[in-house]
Amino acid sequence: MLRRISGEGLRVTLLQPRRAAPLGIAVWLVYVVWLIAQLAIGQATAPVAQIVGDVAFIVFGLFALTCAAAAALSNGGRARAAWALVGVGAAAWIVAVAGSDLRSPLGAIRGPFSTWADVGFVVFPIVTCGALLLLPVGPVGPSTVRLLMDGLVVVGSLFLIAWIVVLRGLFDAGRTDPLTFAVTLAYPILDLVAITVGVLVTIRARGAARMSVALLTVGIVLMSISNDVLYHVVAASGRSRGDLLDLGWVTSLLVVGLGALAGCSQRLAGQIPVHDTLWLPYVPLSVAGVVVVADLAKPASVVVLSVSVSLVIVVMLRQFLVMGTNQRLLAVVAEQALQDPLTGLANRHLFNDRLHHAVELHRRELFGVLAVLTLDLDDFKLVNDGLGHAAGDALLVDVAARIRSAVRSGDTIARLGGDEFAILIEKGPETPDSVAQRVIDAFAEPFVVDGHLLPIRPSVGLSVAPARDRDLRADMLLKQSDLAMYAAKRTRGSGVVTFASDTGPMRRLAAEDDAPKLGLLNDLRHAIEHGDLTMVYQPKVDLRLGGRDVVGVEALVRWPHPEHGLLTPGDFLPLIRRHDLMAPMTELVFELVFADSARWHEAGRTVPVAINLFAPSFDDSGLPDRLLATLGEHGLAATELTLEITEDLVIDDVPRARQTLECLRERDIRVSVDDFGSGFSGLHYLRELPVDEVKLDRQFVMPIVEDPRAAAIVRAVIGLAHDLGVACVAEGVENAATAERLREYGCDLAQGYHFGRPVAAPLLLDALTSPDPQTTRG
Predict the structure, then answer these.
(1) Which residue, 284, 308, 282, 283, is CA-closest to 295?
(2) How far is the CA of 564 from the CAs of 438, 520, 757, in angstroms?
(3) DSSP SS3 for 722
(4) Which residue of 164, 430, 639, 707 is surrounded by the most CB atoms within 10 Å?
(5) Quick check: helix, strand or coil at residue 561?
(6) What is the Cβ-side half-sphere exposure of residue 237, based on CA atoms within 13 angstroms?
(7) Quick count: other Cβ atoms within 10 Å of Cβ 356?
(8) Worst-scoring range by mean pLDDT, 104-118, 238-252, 662-676?
């Protein structure tokens, strides 16, 4: 039944609890059928039947002992000690059965201590009660002691009721001597304590613990009933054992063993709510109080007085424990009220409190370092929408851990809400810029959540308190950090943006900060609904043909805002991503681009066009059919369209995206990886997704003439692209030297201000129909 397994040290565990339990139940059923048969033929009290009953006691006692040993060895800590006690109780019961003469009517009548071996019967309820108190179904310490006190209150109350109503009359009548009477009461009292504790623990247990504790409690109840029936009913009738009484003992041992198996297969854990059983001990206590008050008319009883005083003392001690528990709970609640429940970081309330305190110290001392850093995760909404909120929560926990590892121990880290975090940087040898840079570096590696590689980047803003500023305010420092963070989000750069009120972006953000984001969002929704966005097109040339012929264009969206002027994607794409406007935005862009392409066709020009598409759009298997239908409506060929995947976004379901891309390419629509090298996903996309070209990010292309390392990277990527059979496009080409170097490296296509600035569709058409296409340069 036991086997040795490898693990942390030498452990012994049950071979298979799901097999051991049916085996025990099967043996029990066989015994039940045999016992019923003996009853049917009137042989249940025959010597042979009683010998079989004693053997059954030993067999099921060994079953309970073995299961308890397996549970003890498969657990650790308090659970191991608890199941070890259950095993001790089962062993004591086996010894008691083997050493006592239950078949003797005289032994039954004399009471529970006919022989010293019978002490084992008393051990069982004592040790199982201790096991129930030890099982880790909730907090340790005072709660365990309080459980015992609850049991004492219930037992004492019930004893008072029973003594005044029934037992005192029997005792006074002289039906038995005091010693025998006390010994006889030992069984029900001990059983009652164990049952009370078992019920209390079962009510409080949670999860897997409840099944195990409930079975153990049921076993104790069956054992108690059997014991009481034996010593108070069977003995009174002059019979040696009850007919079905043996079944109660055997069943109780079986249930105790099943409880141990439940504790063996699943470790017990959980938190005990302190409110659900606070009232339970007071129910019998109130009844006992009424009975005692009614008994005051009779002469004082030493038993009633002693038990009543003991109950008062136990209740007082219990209340002291409850008060201590409440104080600890209040402390925990107060601490949780200042913490973010998901990440364990400080929450906004605690951060604001510490920020105000730090600002007051800074104003008094007029020196030292004080700074606030805020960061927001780019494209976090895509994670929630694509992978679910559980994955989003897991990502936030990982982000909190990385931030915690990057800052100093004395700095305060807080989660202000959603995916926004803040750090309060106070005195120290390091500058706030170095701390901020470490935070950014902590995001260098992608996060792994549910098997998905997530290249998450933060937008980071920093606000440093000026020295000798007596007018410094905490809310202003935090607001300035937020402004810097939003400036970083608009530029989508990879560094820290430090607040400087005299810079253009800061002035613009500060002017828009009070109501504007909501107003800007409403304007954006209106612009998308009414088609108020416009498209411009940047030419792409073929370096292999000398770079003079325009072979395609990239479509770029612009928003001519009536108040803020012409806005580029960096100004409003964060709103698009955050507020679930990607689908209508994509539909509008397709409509605008295809309409321009149709006009070019009418003028006799065919211009392949590339459109940036949000990466999650490729998870949509219906995308190819919709695109082909729209192209057909405008009289365009699929070969004129290239879809560009922005590398720094996340494709949720790569296998499904692969199918979508294969379907697009089968319909002659080209696929490109845009901004290759700007994120973490480029190589992964090249390996997993069928694409036709990669576009080198401008940050690698622009310095290749002066920077040998950048040149080496660009040359290697071009070679890698050709080895994979895909074309390479370079963007950000600003001068002839860069264009020539790219041509030497074998780059296929290029775009940038050297070849032409982005222009509206009519201007592009004029440039294409002019003798010199290079007139698109501006």
Answers:
(1) 308
(2) 35, 10, 22
(3) helix
(4) 164
(5) strand
(6) 9
(7) 13
(8) 104-118
Compute the distance between CA of residue 349 and CA of residue 341 in angstroms, rounded to an integer: 13
Lowest mean pLDDT among 128-137, 239-248, 398-407, 420-429: 239-248
275-303: b or e for each residue (b if 16 or more CB lie within 10 Å)?
eebeebbeebbeebeebbeebeeeeebee
Backbone φ and ψ of 736, nearest 5°: -70, -35
From the CA atom positions of the chain, what is the Rg in Å?
40
Determine the pLDDT at residue 100. 60
- Report d(CA 77, CA 268) in Å as an integer: 11
SS3 assignment, position 325: helix
Residue 752 falls in which region: left (phi positive, over 0), alpha (psi -120 to 50) or beta: left
Name the helix (H) or strand (E) containing 135. Answer: none
The answer to whether residues 759 and 537 touch, using CB atoms and an 8 Å cutoff, is yes
What CA–CA distance (Å, rounded) separates 696 from 166?
Answer: 95
Separation between Cα atoms, residue 382 and residue 652, nearest integer Å: 9
pLDDT of 110 higher than 60: no
**Tokens linked to 670:** 């080209």
Name residue, tokens 């080198």: 696
The one-letter amino acid at 269: A
pLDDT of residue 143: 59
- Which DSSP string corresponds to 472-487? --HHHHHHHHHHHHHH
CA 491 to chain CA mean position, Å: 33
E strand spans, 327-439: 371-377, 412-417, 420-425
Which parts of 365-446 are beta strand (E)? 371-377, 412-417, 420-425
Q: Please state at what angle helix 432-441 crosses helix 389-406, rounded to 10 degrees.
A: 140
Joined tokens for residue 715: 């040359």
H-only helix segments in 111-141: 119-134
Backbone φ and ψ for 682, nearest 5 degrees, come out as: -55, -55
pTM exceeding 0.70: no
Q: Tell me which residue of 193, 81, 80 sits closest to 129, measured CA to CA.
A: 193
The pair of three-digit structure tokens given for residue 585, joined into one six-digit string:
């935005």
Q: Which amino acid is at 671?
A: V
Q: At what angle do helices 389-406 and 380-387 cross, to 10 degrees?
A: 140
Q: HSE of 448 in the Cβ direction (CA atoms, 13 Å)?
A: 2
Secondary element (H or E) of residue 144: helix 142-162
Residue 759 β-bridge partners: 537
- How far is residue 190's CA from residue 398's CA, in Å, rounded to a whole number? 52
Paired tokens of 6: 């490898």
User: What is the maximum alpha-carbon separation in the chain?
Assistant: 130
Question: Distance from first CA to last CA of the chain, Å, rounded?
Answer: 86
Render pLDDT for 508-559 as a digit per residue (tens, 0 to 9). 444 444 444 556 778 888 898 888 899 999 999 999 887 677 889 999 999 9
User: Any idea how long the chain is?
Assistant: 778
